[in-house]
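Morning run. Coffee first, then this:
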Amino acid sequence: MRILIIGDVVGGNGLAAVLATLPALRESHRADAVVVNAENAADGTGTSPRQARELLDAGVDVLTGGNHSLRRREFAEVLRDDARVLRPANLAADAPGRAVTVVPTPAGSLGVVNVMGNVFLDATANPFEIIDGLVTEARDGGATHILVDHHAEVTSEKKALGWYLDGRVTAVVGTHTHVQTADERVLPQGTAYITDLGMSGPHDSVIGVRTDVIVRRFRLGTHDRFEVATGNVRVQGVVVEAGPDGRAVSISRIDEAVTAET
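And here it is:
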């Protein structure tokens, strides 16, 4: 199985870039499944129902979320009604939707688990206390391969979860910090890992937001409204290849510049 996993989509230009490049990326990487974290697609915070529909209609198999998944009230219906759209299991005790799904692919069934980090985020449960049950749920649902999106702030927490799950899931990928890391590897027992997939959106920015807004915030302590930047739009993520036993054999980063003509 080959899984194309795309990092946090930021703003409308990030969404447009993913939609424009997805057919070519899927073909060039021979992807059996596509998973996209879309929790920043709507002006940098949350996802709109229209955006979710556009991504799913474009061939994305599963959308994952993060700490902004509940930011837009109208998105709750999507979370409740579409099993392909996830939010972190420990986002809120009574949050709508689900954190685990299993989807068919040409290479077998893929289970996707969405969990949020406990450090510096408002998680309602420690991910290490709930992850075993979530993985079991995916396995009981018929998944031959399992991907975990760990939406977390801290590198050490992400790495610890990767090692904890080594050999029990196909891949553990980090999202949320919007900076692609260079530590992709297959762990000793066959789990692919990367601390952060990166950001699909404008990279002439401070993690997606206009640089002048953020520089002013740090210099002067202002609280200006965040505005998504526009320059140097890129699509980032990884491709994970795994055998029929669900163990990863390779993980490679993708970082695609998107021109205005794309």
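The chain has one domain: 2-199+232-257. Good start to the day.
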